[in-house]
Amino acid sequence: LFISLNNRWPRVRRLTITYIAEWVLGNKQDSSSHLLTPERDSDTGALLVRNCFARNGGETRAFMAASLPAHGFTTDGLEVFGEHWSPDSPPVGLAAVGLSDRVIPSARPCAAYQVHINLEPDASNQFHFVLGAAETRAKAISLVALSQQPQWIDVKRTAVRERWAALPDVW
After folding, report:
1. Can you give the pLDDT of all 171 residues of the chain as single tens digits?
2. How many other CB atoms are found less than 10 A from the CB of residue 60?
3. What is the pTM of this model?
4. CA separation for the pair 59, 52 (Å, rounded)
5. How far apart are CA 122 and CA 7, in angstroms?
6. Which residues of 71-99 are buried (b: 16+ CB within 10 A; e: fewer)?
7. Angle at alpha carbon of residue 30, lines to 100 and 66, rounded to 5°
8. DSSP result, the chain
9. Distance CA 126, CA 104 (A)
10. What is the pLDDT of residue 92?
């Protein structure tokens, strides 16, 4: 997810942007959520999760990271969504000031990653979030490290745009 911000106001703008993904590593969330083990990589700041009981022995990792350092994060979907969340209401965790920075197994596993931006008047800022999966933890961390390189992201964004542009030709 690539984000470009421009501050056209005559004052500094302070923004907190939160990217949230519910983890489903299995056939259905209801039957696999209790099998998911989250972690945070201390070097990259990435949030990772694996299904310890997957057919491949639980080596596959899904991950979320950003090009900016985390202002806050959590893997507890109950903190983010609340006990009785519905798509018609905003996640309750966004009403709180910051996230707990907890990485714990949850009845509703997710990755929530917040970044903080200060934009001076007439300033711009570009950053991105990355959501992906890899066959091993080492490969996931390698992809997160690559995602910190603007040139790599530009190449991948171009490839995705080209792929999407070609889809109408497929149908």
Report:
1. 999 999 999 999 999 999 999 998 876 666 678 889 999 999 999 999 999 877 777 789 999 999 999 999 999 988 998 887 777 777 777 777 889 999 998 888 999 999 999 999 999 999 999 999 999 999 999 999 999 998 999 999 999 999 888 887 665
2. 19
3. 0.88
4. 8
5. 5
6. bbbbbbbbbbbbeebeeeeebebeeeeeb
7. 40
8. -EEEEE--SSS-EEEEEEEEEE---SS-HHHHGGGEEEEE-TTT--EEEEETTSTT-S--EEEEEESS--SEEEEEHHHHH-TT--TTS--GGGGSSS---B----SSEEEEEEEEEEE-TT-EEEEEEEEEEESSHHHHHHHHHHHTSHHHHHHHHHHHHHHHHHHHHH-
9. 30
10. 77
Torsion of CA 120, 126, 131, 137, to 10 degrees: -90
Q: How many residues does the chain have?
A: 171
Tokens for 44, please give them: 């990259």
